[in-house]
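Hi support team,

I've been running sequence recovery on a batch of backbones for a student project. Most finish fine, but this one hangs at about 90% for roughly twenty minutes before it completes. I'm not sure whether the input is malformed or the queue is just slow. I've pasted the structure tokens below so you can try to reproduce it. Let me know if you need the job ID as well.

Thanks,
M.K.
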């Protein structure tokens, strides 16, 4: 399987290097698209060339890049592994991607786990309540839409502060580099409206945490994830490129894979 990488920052660079170095059985690196990749020595190319040489493209370039290039990837016949899952909160984007084929859409589990169980449980009956609370280092959560006063208070806070709480669709759009996981939970439980998401800034947070609680007819669930942040892009957890590599491994040579 030839794999193209769209976006070579903290996630994509690790994915591309692993593919280039032959560390994913059955998969090889077709090329990389990024105006300024995080590491040197990758086979850079333009998007049209990537699409003509890849069987599958991994998007790790951000929500905007997925919205802009996703349909083009799929209509060129490449499968697409999405990392910026939060882009799918936009009205109609998932439907547009699914209709764009012949390429197939895959979603990375990214920074969290438990999605398989939530997906299974939602089939038994709809969840009554689902909450995901994300806590990150305060300084990494400043957003362009914040007022100067709010951004400044966030940079200088000495105690944890809840920045926003609301529907998953709104929170993932408000924090496009930090709350893709809220969209992943909503897609797993098959219902955007039941999922409440919160983003908490903690100046002293030693790790990024995601706490997911869910209750429904199948049972009650609580997943607590504490990830080390990426040294390069602290909004992203260090495990995310390895979630991508694990997915690529399963797609390229499925051997006793959890599904
Ligand atoms: N599903 C999940 O659990 C998670 C999802 N994510 C998502 O993954 C994304 C990437 O994370 P990360 O690698 O840490 O971010 P980085 O900012 O480190 O890397 C993103 C890279 O993509 C490049 N890029 C942006 N737009 C394009 C484009 N149109 N074509 C090609 N390259 C492009 C950027 O270039 P430049 O800097 O020049 O813009 C940058 O080099 C995040 O934005 C987030 O949306 C992250 C963590 C978890
Ligand atoms: O990497 C993480 O911990 C989560 C993240 O940034 C996101 O969901 O966008």
């Amino acid at each position: 399987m030839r794999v193209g990488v769209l976006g070579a920052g903290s996630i994509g660079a690790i994915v591309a290097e692993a593919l280039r170095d032959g560390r994913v059985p059955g998969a090889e690196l077709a090329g990389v698209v990024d105006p300024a990749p995080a590491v040197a020595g990758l086979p850079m190319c333009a998007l049209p060339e990537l699409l003509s040489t890849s069987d599958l493209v991994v998007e790790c370039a951000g929500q905007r890049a997925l919205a802009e290039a996703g349909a083009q990837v799929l209509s060129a016949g490449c499968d697409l592994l999405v990392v910026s899952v939060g882009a799918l909160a936009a009205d109609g984007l998932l439907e547009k991607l699914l209709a764009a084929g012949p390429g197939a859409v895959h979603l990375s589990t990214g920074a969290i786990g438990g999605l398989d169980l939530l997906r299974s449980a939602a089939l038994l009956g709809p969840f009554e309540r689902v909450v995901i609370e994300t806590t990150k280092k305060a300084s990494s959560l400043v957003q362009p839409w914040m007022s100067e006063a709010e951004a400044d208070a966030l940079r200088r806070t000495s105690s944890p502060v809840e920045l926003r709480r609301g529907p998953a669709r709104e929170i993932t759009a408000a924090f496009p580099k930090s709350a893709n996981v809220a969209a992943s939970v909503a897609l797993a439980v098959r219902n955007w409206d039941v999922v409440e998401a919160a983003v908490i800034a903690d100046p002293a947070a030693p790790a990024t945490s995601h706490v997911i609680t869910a209750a429904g007819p199948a049972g009650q669930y609580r997943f607590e994830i504490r990830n080390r942040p990426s040294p390069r892009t602290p909004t992203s957890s260090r495990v995310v490129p390895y979630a991508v590599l694990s997915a690529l491994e399963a797609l390229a040579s499925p051997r006793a894979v959890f599904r």
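--
Follow-up from support: It reproduced on our side and the slowdown came from queue contention, not your input. The first helix runs from residue 12 to 20. No action needed from you.
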